[in-house]
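tool=predict chain=A
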Amino acid sequence: MDHPATHQTSSTTCADEVVASLGARLRLRRRELGLTLKDVADKAGFSVGFISQIERDITTPSLTSLIAVAHVLDRDVSDFLCQPRGDSALTRHNERVVYGLKEGAVRYERLSASFPGNVLSSVIIHEPPGHRDAPIAHEGEEIFFILEGAITVEIDGEVIVLGAGDSIHFPSTMRHATWNHTSETTVILHTCTIDVFGNTAVADDAQRAMDVIHHGKNKKQSGNTQSNKGKKR
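tool=predict ok
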């Protein structure tokens, strides 16, 4: 499988490069809300040590872990991670943006599109050797399909090794984690029902824009009606 080169384009959801590290931005937002490390850890379902390591840039969270922390901080994941937009239903293997939180960490390729009512989020995950996710549980369901390499998956205490061509489908409410126990990068097709790309926020913004447009049209039509009534008199 040919891997596209890592690059960023104007198709990402955030326009400006953020200078501050992820950990610094998360810590600043936590303090703005007056939350302790324990507050965030308890609400996100992680250990205090894990949240502390993220804030000190010792550990790089996975996409789903970052979503959980961002939710506790009342922020969308796109406030902390630049992600490609899902404007097109079609993606080409040599044109997809490969992105992540930092070099050497887990990398992603967006597959799923964004449209009104869409539920599925899908990415190709490039998980480096030795990477281990923190256990997490959330609403929805998900599927892992191994494209290359192998990975250890732990679901509610059951440890399963998946190799190329293997897959697993489970409720996301079961506590789960992955670990690349190999010496090579493992490539995974991951599909889930959690809002990985902030599509809900995008849809809300679009709806608000439409409401403004419709409100303006209604005001204009109401004004025209009143004007016509005045002319008839």
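The helical segments are 22-32, 37-44, 48-55, 63-72, 199-232. The CA atoms of residues 199 and 205 lie 10 Å apart.
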